[in-house]
Structures are given as structure tokens and as C-alpha cells.
Write a sequence for this structure.
């Protein structure tokens, strides 16, 4: 994961509707949800849902798979794990520097 990719994914999740869609798919687990079921749970128009799903798919956070006439949407867990890992990777890395600076003051 790099800064640009993390930025695009966070920007996509920064929209309340997309965040709601994504959280709904995360809650659904690996089975995912058909678009119609997702639309019912979120309660938005099909065209609006399609627009938001495209953004989530384009950033790699959501995958879609067609089964006959049904389009199944799933949270792409490896992408979610990579984003969370990127955010937490260097947690407290500079804490020793901050502690040293505080002690020097």
C-alpha cells in the first residue's frame, strides 16, 4: 500500500453513503450481498447505489461477481486489511523522539 492508494480509499470512504454501503458489506461477511439486497438495506435508489459502488470497486475496496442475473457485492477484505495496516503500521514510531524531547525540556 502506498500513500496515493490509501488516500483514494479513504476519500471513497469519506462519503457517508459509501461508508454505509461498505460497512453493510463488511457485516455481510464473505458471502456478500446481491445488489438488490444491498439496496433494500441501505434504502437508496438503484442509480445512486450503482454510482457509489463503482467508486468502491474502482478503489479496490469492493469486488463484484455475477451469478446468472444476480450481481454479488463483497467487501474486499485484503484491501481493508492493507488499509488498516497502512494506518497502524508506524503507530508510536516517533514516541521515543517525543519522550526524549519532553525529557530535554
Amino acid at each position: 500500500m502506498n500513500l496515493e492508494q490509501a488516500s483514494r480509499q479513504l476519500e471513497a470512504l469519506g462519503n457517508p453513503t459509501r461508508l454505509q454501503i461498505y460497512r453493510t458489506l463488511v457485516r455481510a461477511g464473505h458471502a456478500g450481498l446481491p445488489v438488490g439486497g444491498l439496496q433494500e438495506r441501505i434504502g437508496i435508489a438503484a442509480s445512486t447505489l450503482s454510482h457509489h459502488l463503482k467508486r468502491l470497486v474502482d478503489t479496490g475496496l469492493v469486488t463484484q461477481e455475477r451469478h446468472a442475473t444476480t450481481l454479488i457485492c463483497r467487501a474486499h477484505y485484503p484491501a481493508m486489511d492493507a488499509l488498516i495496516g497502512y494506518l497502524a503500521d508506524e503507530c508510536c514510531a516517533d514516541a521515543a523522539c517525543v519522550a526524549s524531547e519532553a525529557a530535554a525540556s
Summary: The two ends are 37 Å apart (CA to CA). DSSP finds six helices and three strands in the chain.
